[in-house]
Amino acid sequence: MDIAMEQRPTATRTAPLRTGEAYLRAIADDGRRVFIDGELVKDVTRHPAFREGARSIARLYDMAADPANRERLTFPSPADGAPVLRAYQIPRNHADLRAKRLAAESWAEATFGLMGRTPDHVAGFFCGYAAKPSVFAAGGQGYADNVVRFYEHLRDSHLYASYAIVPPQIDRSKPAHQQSDPSLYAGVVREKDGGIVLAGAQQLATGGVLSDYLYLSCIHPLQPGDENQAIGVAIPMNAPGLKLYSRRGFAAKAENSFDYPLTSRFDETDSLVVLNDVFVPWENVFIYRDTRICFDQWWKTPSHLYGNLQAQARYATKLRFLLGLAKRMNEMTGHDRNPPVMVQMGELASLATIVDSMVHAQEVMAQVEEDGVLWPSRATLYSVMALQSEINPRMIDIVREITGAGMITLPSSERDFSNPEIAADMERFFSTPGHAARGKVALMKLAWDFIGTEFGNRHQQYEKFYGGASFLVKMNVFRNYDFNRATQLVDQALDLPPVAAG
Ligand SMILES: Cc1cc2nc3c(=O)[nH]c(=O)nc-3n(C[C@H](O)[C@H](O)[C@H](O)COP(=O)(O)OP(=O)(O)OC[C@H]3O[C@@H](n4cnc5c(N)ncnc54)[C@H](O)[C@@H]3O)c2cc1C
Q: Fewer beta carbons below 10 Å: N end or C end of the chain?
């Protein structure tokens, strides 16, 4: 197979920065096949399950297009100097990496850290691929050229990619090729003129419904025999045969934004991706039937580091928001100066500071490894990710502890304030000194939406698994910790000269 013939012309011109409106126009009614509650969604920008999530993404694009944020959220495209999303910058030095982190923080603040797969997440992976195309060239130079060109296309057109890189949880006891049907897990089923045909399913495209492109690959280690699944390809979300089966749409069930302030705005949704004979032209194929390259793309390029540096900047922002929620609730309940509560708040603040500081440490300890590109510190990144599945539930539990029934003893809905028969009681029993009832209830509902609603609980699952199961992340720390330096200390202790007796 000769992939060189199929290449697109090199991108030479950068598109004007994308506005929110342009983004919404691009994904509206474009033929993508998204299914929810048994129905095909005609236009995700109008459907109640996806509309507000799409608008939240649109606001991020508007922020980046605002000249006031030019320095913070964009950088000059190497193609022609026109501004493009900072998320697509390949960091050459510490200042570049810091600038990427600050951009990620700005978008995370705009969504309170509650949207994980904003356009800057998978952008980080493609920066990592373009920084180290030699990994892809091991399969043929054409694949390396394709991945660099596709990165440039995403960068210079300000596009939003999501990804599905985990096989569906059908039977984890067997590799892909030994499943009851060898095309259950997403993979190539045949070659066709100009490209390949894919079938099967892959989990779990968070934000897939809202994105322009899906990156389909596999992060699970594949075995000999699994070559059909060892691919890395980009697919436009409206490609014929591509289907997204969304989980329950929380936003569609949220009655109003007073009772569900977060659900109603920030549900990015998660979807199982199903491929029914999806054609992918060679130009969008970066890895083809190669288990080694499929594995190396994550660990021998800085892709996983850049993507997860963004994820950690987002998570640190989300924890800051959680601390703010807890503090405000304590002020409302009169516990703010209660010493045991102060101790618990101190523990919360310690955990949030550890996460925040580890983001900075990844940056400070980053090193130029190869090709003049800066790689964030692996041991630092994976250490904090490995402990996240313990830190996060601990923090949520502390907030539950200090809040008592505060997030539950609330009017059933906003409508209770409008019934004249009970309005006075609402004010009398739901207010707190210095705060009218409506303000206090709004705060408590905000906290409950963060912690206790279906949206809040999905977030706890997300923080546990977005970077893979924690046993896998701990293996990453094991692979990257400097055990030599540690054991040298032990050797030195064993070599200490004897202490003279007496
Ligand atoms: C809300 C949410 C959003 C997500 N978004 C995305 C996304 O955008 N893109 C994407 O590709 N994926 C995404 N994921 C998927 C995520 O990558 C996977 O859920 C994750 O990799 C874990 O895989 P799994 O769910 O199949 O669990 P499994 O691999 O089946 O593991 C489940 C549990 O089994 C146990 N276990 C299994 N094997 C072992 C072992 N060898 N040793 C010890 N214990 C073991 C562990 O307790 C593990 O936690 C998301 C997941 C969630 C929950």
A: C
Structural domains of the chain, ranges and CATH numbers in brackets: 4-299 (2.40.110.10), 303-482 (1.20.140.10)
In angstroms, rounded to a whole number, what is the distance separating the alpha carbons of residues 371 and 144? 15
Say what the pLDDT of residue 13 is.
81
What is the 3 state secondary structure string of 199-264?
A: EEEEECCCCHHHCCEEEECCCCCCCCCCHHHCCEEEEECCCCCEEEEECCCHHHHCCCCCCCCCHH
Q: How far is the CA of 427 from the centre of ligand 1 (A)?
A: 46
CA of residue 302 to ligand 1 center, whole Å: 22
How many CB atoms are closer than 10 A to CB 282?
A: 21
pLDDT score at 1:
43
Q: Whose CA is nearest to atom 44 of ligand 1?
A: 471
Ligand 1 interacting residues, C-beta cut-off 6 A: 117, 163-166, 169, 172, 203-206, 270, 458, 461-462, 465-466, 468-469, 471
Strands 83-85 vs 33-36: parallel, antiparallel or unpaired: unpaired
Mean pLDDT by 10 residues, the chain (502 residues): 40 85 97 98 98 98 98 97 98 98 98 98 98 98 98 98 97 94 95 97 98 97 96 98 98 96 98 98 98 97 97 98 98 94 98 97 93 94 94 97 95 96 96 94 98 98 92 92 96 96 80
Query: For residue 462, which atom of ligand 1 is closest to its CA?
Result: 1
pTM as predicted: 0.95
- Alpha-carbon distance 117 to 173, whole Å? 29
Ligand 1 centroid to Cα of residue 198, in Å, is 23
Residue whose CA is at the smallest distance from ligand 1 atom 45: 471
Give the C-alpha separation, 269 to 115, whole Å. 9
